[in-house]
Amino acid sequence: MGHRKYELYSMDWDLKEELRDCLVAAAPYGGPIALLRNPWRKEKAASVRPVLEIYSASGMPLASLLWKSGPVVSLGWSAEEELLCVQEDGVVLVYGLHGDFRRHFSMGNEVLQNRVLDARIFHTEFGSGVAILTGAHRFTLSANVGDLKLRRMPEVPGLQSAPSCWTTLCQDRVAHILLAVGPDLYLLDHAACSSVTPPGLAPGVSSFLQMAVSFTYRHLALFTDTGYIWMGTASLKEKLCEFNCNIRAPPKQMVWCSRPRSKERAVVVAWERRLMVVGDAPESIQFVLDEDSYLVPELDGVRIFSRSTHEFLHEVPVASEEIFKIASMAPGALLLEAQKEYEKESQKADEYLREIQELGQLTQAVQQCIEAAGHEHRPDMQKSLLRAASFGKCFLDRFPPDSFVRMCQDLRVLNAVRDYHIGIPLTYSQYKQLTIQVLLDRLVLRRLYPLAIQICEYLRLPEVQGVSRILAHWACYKVQQKDVSDEDVARAINQKLGDTPGVSYSDIAARAYGCGRTELAIKLLEYEPRSGEQVPLLLKMKRSKLALSKAIESGDTDLVFTVLLHLKNELNRGDFFMTLRNQPMALSLYRQFCKYQELETLKDLYNQDDNHQELGSFHIRASYAAEERIEGRVAALQTAADAFYKAKNEFAAKATEDQMRLLRLQRRLEDELGGRFLDLSLHDTVTTLILGGHNKRAEQLARDFRIPDKRLWWLKLTALADLEDWEELEKFSKSKKSPIGYLPFVEICMKQHNKYEAKKYTSRVGPEQKVKALLLVGDVAQAADVAIEHRNEAELSLVLSHCTGATDGATADKIQRARAQAQKK
Amino acid sequence: MAFPHRPDAPELPDFSMLKRLARDQLIYLLEQLPGKKDLFIEADLMSPLDRIANVSILKQHEVDKLYKVESKPAVSSSEQLCFLVRPRIKNMRYIANLVNADKLAGRTRKYKVIFSPQKFYACEMVLEEEGIYGDVSCDEWAFSLLPLDVDLLSMELPEFFRDYFLEGDQRWINTVAQALHLLSTLYGPFPNCYGIGRCAKMSYELWRKLEDEEDGETKGRRPEIGHIFLLDRDMDFVTALCSQVVYEGLVDDTFRIKCGSVDFGPEVTSSDKSLKVLLNAEDKNGRALLLCCRYTGEAGRYKLQFCVRRRGMDIKQMKNFVSQELKGLKQEHRLLSLHIGACESIMKKKTKQDFQELIKTEHALLEGFNIRESTSYIEEHIDRQVSPIESLRLMCLLSITENGLIPKDYRSLKTQYLQSYGPEHLLTFSNLRRAGLLTEQAPGDTLTAVESKVSKLVTDKAAGKITDAFSSLAKRSNFRAISKKLNLIPRVDGEYDLKVPRDMAYVFSGAYVPLSCRIIEQVLERRSWQGLDEVVRLLNCSELAFTDMTKEDKASSESLRLILVVFLGGCTFSEISALRFLGREKGYRFIFLTTAVTNSARLMEAMSEVKA
């Protein structure tokens, strides 16, 4: 069984207390360490008040604060690196990495009444959970503190005292609790409590002193009072191995130490001064502990820190073992050797290479070296392995370079974050499990923005995922710096961010507003290029008028409308209208809406604006769309006329008054004569009267409404022709000289196919239209005569175009002759 | 085609991808509601939907029955109801009524509302106010670009015009920006951008913002389309107000083309049934057909001057052409006879004396002579109640070409109009004035000073205290000056032979070069607005004309000859024809993106107040 331990850091912290005097919690994945000093002192004296301190994994202080809340039972880190402090009364206080208080929540009344006896923070795929053992020996847990749902576990029958040890298990996505009481083990799930027995457990156990679940919840280890360790699956269905260490003292800590996909099983057990690694081998590995130490289980090993050092203990990876095993003949080992000889310019290099090549293992050798490099902590070792890999690559034809390149990149990133000042001692496997995105998040959480950006740029991550995101986080942090003026913050942010794609200024502004810095938020919003994004926040900040102009700028009418409705509710009607008045685009939008949905509001809007013209139009429309009764319609028209007068639109006012007169008159006509007159135009009214034979009335109406002569003549002409009242028509034509000439008489008769009547009027047609009239009645010959008499070329062509066939042959000749004559002259 | 493309003309990008995208998204949305469901479709979406997914595709995805969203409630027995609607408050009310009726009856069903092209917060608000927000699920069908032809993309948003240019509602601008963004993701970035108009500028800026936010995707892609030109409809109302005389324009003015297809009534089909005909066809045979129709179009327009005499001959010509060129395409003959029928029907309508008088008046207005005569023509037009929309159109044309009506005419024409067509048009006039389409001449020339000041104010996003009077004042059209500057009225020596068009004026019988197209031509020629300062000033756009060129030149010479023209507020078939002609002359290809295909009648209807 190969395990090795190496130092990560010598700790920088200046701890006064022993670790055993503190509550300790360290986050996995090289996370921070929280210490609560003097947690158990009851005195109120300030000097001995508990102190909460947070350090990086390298011991750099991140935060320190005086604990002023209630007594704390347990500390733990959530997956988002938030510190959860479980108080005796069941209240859990949540702090950020820098000691900033975030929120708190309670684990329920039952917990409050019976106090917290013990608590564990655990991680599942849903997030981080809290499990609590109360003074009444009952368990309460929440599987995800982000979405708090408390679950009270069933009672363990006959349980009188606290269990000797317990842990949370996670199976089939459900959290369970395993507890030991004397020689018995109980498994609590949601519904029931069941007694369980580990298969193949050695006899003679009277009590379990310690239990440990592996990082992935797959394995379980039990330590009994006989100094015997049982290791098996967490389902308790299968035993993997057992070990007897013959130490009966209860261990301080026991954690699993295995790497993913490894066949080896090992558990690290720690006592006061002794550390033991046990597995299925008959022998254990033992270390002496010089100081009080604390174990942190990791995905692929165990971190061990004390007052002075921070170490990592893990199973030696296969690649490393093959290469570094004494007298190893593995291809990787030979390649490393070959490269070293090559640097010494020794021909042995060739011999080693040949040996590998003869076995056809060069590819494998290169891969081994690359992989082993990943597992080395010291950069010099990484380098020599990579150098060997690179050397080996030269002798390979087709070795894809990406694994090598990627390893070099990963190691540079890892070495950077492992640096003492950063203090995130991630191993290669942890890094791969965590992913670069989460690592970047963690750097951002530690406010290590420059490093995060460098990494993004180095790895050439897309801006939106990389640099922009980090800059946005930086800006959100920046707006919280209350000692810097709004102008400076806004300017600093804009200088750094510029127009970086993917950065949302409105998000940053929202954060500033969240910190109570409204003015800063408005300044930041000015940098937001998308006006649409500015609006919701401005509304939230009650800057509705600004929001309105931004919405208008965006050109998005929906957005404008949203703001309008907001304003409508926020302001009183008068102010609302005043605001609209200054924003024509919004005004017309709102008008359109009112036209369909709120007619009365539309009227109010016009009133407010003293827009009498539109007000008049509004009432005109009402006079035929909204009102039914004649009185109502006339009243509406009267209002309209008044409005038009106010608008100095006398034409419209007069026209409206005429319409009022007409309406009343039409009503009277309907009463007196029957038939339909209402809503006819003036012209149609008179026509209807003539058609009905009420010529007197028609005349009267024409006089009353001052219908021009021309119109009256057209009107009468058309109406009489429609009636085919030729006698009346002739009488009419002779009543006085026609203001429209007599061609229309000819035309209208021809329209009714009455050539006889038409001919009556041709003689009276004026000379310039005579040809036309004659042609209309089909008198081509006479038309030709007139045209020739007029010596008018256009008229001649016109007549000529009417000459058809043989009948007009003579006429055509005549015209041609006249033309010829005219040309001669 | 009558005028084939130059051999070096660039290939157009394949826009059928847009259809596939829209279809796939719709299917995905339908599948989000598994099982049988009834689909309620808004009337305006029916034709576009038909171009994307026909009934059998809908059936494949378990759409059981189809209903039209209309005022009367529909009786559906399905357990799942799906609504496909435009984001309008009216529709929300309809849905709310339906859901609330179910609630009263103690019935529970699944409801899904699919908004196209996007949902608006105001709609969700209404659902909430009606107490059904929790009962329905909302989705968006981002279908904003419908290819109507190989070079024509329509957003099918006719309400864009009224919403933006009359009501000042900017909600569709985002939709435009999204559509441009989609195009640039699919077809690469546009290296050269030009634009004029406030809406153009806002759309452009919003779109740029979208591109910046989603950086990286289009960067490095080779551009397929070298230029983009954004143009507001209010830069050129004149062109849109003119009677159209190119074939597609004539068909659109006469029969109304809807979503690229037209319903020919009995007078065209010479049977008792109406027939729906797709006006463009994308396959090869269709191309040949189109070619033929355009040819007829040429002839039809040509005949506006010599119509009656030459008709028989032209139809014969065309029939000859058909029998020679379309030999073996029996199936096309049926379609073709429809088009011939349409031509004949148009001619019947247009060759009457009235139409010639009308065209004459329009040309007089464009050229600026005989204003008094034109004014009395318009007055007579109104007095005779010829057509409310036509009368309005002529009044607007007069106002814009003359920089507003003189006060006397302004009053009298309006009075006459109200007497003829009803008093509710008082509101129509108020709308037209606000949009700058029908205004009163302001006395004196001191205006220019005020004007430049005001136009500056208007451009300033934050400034908004401008009253309506001011803003319509700022919209002085200056048409006459612009026309002179840009030489819009070609000097014609002798007859303009329409069979051999010389310039873009051919789309208006050689009388007028469309202003919008001329602006585009000039800017493309200069690759900037340089030297057009005076024109830009006259258009009241001193701050609203922009050029944006990317330096890195990855664009191939081929792509640099592809130009995407974006018409905000709609474009007409005349403008499309004019630019197609320009493209053929210069070896460019134009691609048209419009909020909707429009014409004078649609513009006027958008401004009219109609009694419900």
From TrEMBL, chain A:
Cite the GO molecular-function annotations of the record: actin binding
Family, per the entry? Answer: Belongs to the VPS16 family.
Task: Identify the species of origin.
Answer: Equus asinus (Donkey)
**Which lineage is the organism of this entry classified under, starting from the top rank?**
Eukaryota, Metazoa, Chordata, Craniata, Vertebrata
| Coiled coil (residue ranges) | 335-362
Which keywords does UniProt give here? Coiled coil, Endosome, Lysosome, Membrane, Protein transport, Transport
Localization terms from the record: Late endosome membrane; Lysosome membrane
> What InterPro entries does the annotation carry?
VPS16, Vps16_C, Vps16_C_sf, Vps16_N
What is the role of this chain?
A: Plays a role in vesicle-mediated protein trafficking to lysosomal compartments including the endocytic membrane transport and autophagic pathways. Believed to act as a core component of the putative HOPS and CORVET endosomal tethering complexes.
Membrane topology note: Peripheral membrane protein
Q: Which GO terms describe its cellular component?
A: CORVET complex; early endosome; HOPS complex; late endosome membrane; lysosomal membrane; recycling endosome
Report what the protein is called.
Vacuolar protein sorting-associated protein 16 homolog
Annotated Gene3D superfamilies: Vps16, C-terminal region
TrEMBL record, chain B:
Identify one Gene Ontology CC term for this UniProt entry.
recycling endosome
Q: Does the keyword Nucleotide-binding apply?
A: no
Its domain of life? Answer: Eukaryota
Keyword set, alphabetical order: Acetylation, Cytoplasmic vesicle, Phosphoprotein, Protein transport, Transport
A Gene Ontology annotation in the biological process aspect, one of them, is:
protein transport
**According to its UniProt record, where is this protein located?**
Cytoplasmic vesicle, Clathrin-coated vesicle; Early endosome; Late endosome membrane; Lysosome membrane
Topology class, membrane? Peripheral membrane protein
Q: Does the keyword Chaperone apply?
A: no
| Family recorded in the similarity comment | Belongs to the STXBP/unc-18/SEC1 family.
Give the protein's recorded name: VPS33B late endosome and lysosome associated
Name the gene for this chain: VPS33B
